[in-house]
Task: structure prediction
Amino acid sequence: MDVIGQPSTITIIFSAMLICILFMYAIVYRRERGVRFFVWVLGCRVVYAGGVILEISSADLASKLVFRNLEQTALAFMVPLMVLFVLDLVGMDKWLRWKWLLIALFACWSFVIWTDSYWHVINSTQELVNGHLVTTKTPYSLAFNLLCYAIIAGCIFALVRYILGARPEIRKSGMLLLMFGSIPLMVEILKLVKPNLLPWLLPVSVYSGICGIVMFWIIMRYKLFSSVPMARNIVVETMHEGMLIINTNGNVIDSNRFASELVIGKTDRPILGRHMGEVLAAWPEWLSACTNMEESRIEISSPVDYETKSYIVNVYPFFSHRKRKLGTISIIIDITEKQQALEQVARLNQMKDQLLTAVSHDIRDPLALQVNLVELLDTNKQSLHPAESEIIRTLSEQVRSTYAMVENLLEWFRGQKEGIVLQPESLIIHGVVEEACRLLVLNCEAKQLLLRIDVDEDMRVSADHEALVLVIRNLLSNAIKFSQPGGVISVSATSFGGKTEISVQDDGVGMNEEQIRQLFDETRFSSTKGTAGEKGTGMGLLVSQHFLRMSGGQLKVHSKPGVGSKFTIVLEDGDLR
Result:
């Protein structure tokens, strides 16, 4: 009788060919995580299908026993390979070091299968019934089979948990793949439970290979062997940041080369499967964040290639679709260059501060002496020739202007220095205004301006003395600068609601809204010429606003073109009562 030509046998061969197609497709991607062991599982399945076909096509008992042993050997090796596939897929690499021991154990059982004619450990009886090989399992064989099915059930459970924790687009396809892949297992269990149905179940176990074409379609449709691993590898390995994923058991389940070289150095030892207490021992804060599975941002340093590098580690917990914590993802960013740049900036700032401290004495003090000398000459100008008096007036104006400009410049840089602290005290406003006016008297006289001070002699304000003198002097200097000859400048003060307002008002050229907006723009250091061509640095108002903010006050501006401007200082009342 031609067994090969029977329709049932042709169907079995066709089913086996479908498994071969899936096997060959898996070979192409055998280097990917998980696939490298799954391809061997499929290889055993191909051998099993071939054994069934050869057993059905053979006629004598001895041949059928040989092919049955081939089938049992293939099934035996599928168990450790399935375990290795799951361990590799979920990232428990530390257990893979025992792979050869695991395979050796099942190889020993395969040896028992092929020598069972001497031991009688596998089958207690074996006979041909209507051309089909029927065997009776021994208790040892039944116990071993139950152990194998329990191991496979554990693998399926682990795969279900792994798939449920995967991305949504992978979850559905993964569950379908697992469901169709489990059908042959169900058939094998049924063969164990119902041995009398073996002649019919044996070809059915190969018929279930038709599921292989469904599995092949799922893998092709969702590109599980190619796009998903490839996308992961391309993104993870080429990113400029390190990535370290740790599960709830504290074991590393994934990382890229950047993270591996940071935590364990350039070594051939695998990082996957190692406990976080081992790889993160040098960074307690990082270890604590991963242990508690909490979001955190940590700055660490580590020696790399004889150089200490700095990193920012962002730790994020990740969750299942049921919002259960599954572990942590650490993203590691190299900030060495940025840190070095910041340190260089800090050194330059320190040098700048030291330079300004020295320059402030070397420039300000001689200028102050020149101002005093000019004031002394000015008191005796009545006894001088008119031409000499004009020279003294011009010199006085230039020296005072230079002194005010240098004062603003130095105070500006002093205000930018971190750690500067003002010393507020209760000040008599009238005395502060007079002190600020002293350096500007000649400027007023040069333009024939009338300076009015309408401030109660007992009114007080809470402020730093030097800062307030500087602010009022800057406001007066601007008022003089933009007033027409013969104009009037008035200084007044009012107090209400615990606040004191000091106003400096002129009837000069005034400003429009756009000019007012540009007054306190720190990106522009431009200065407008005064009505007599006076020049400045454009820093006076910026310095004034800065010190007022540090004092908890503010500077208000009201101005109209052709009418004049009014600048108002708002500070805390300095009443001692």
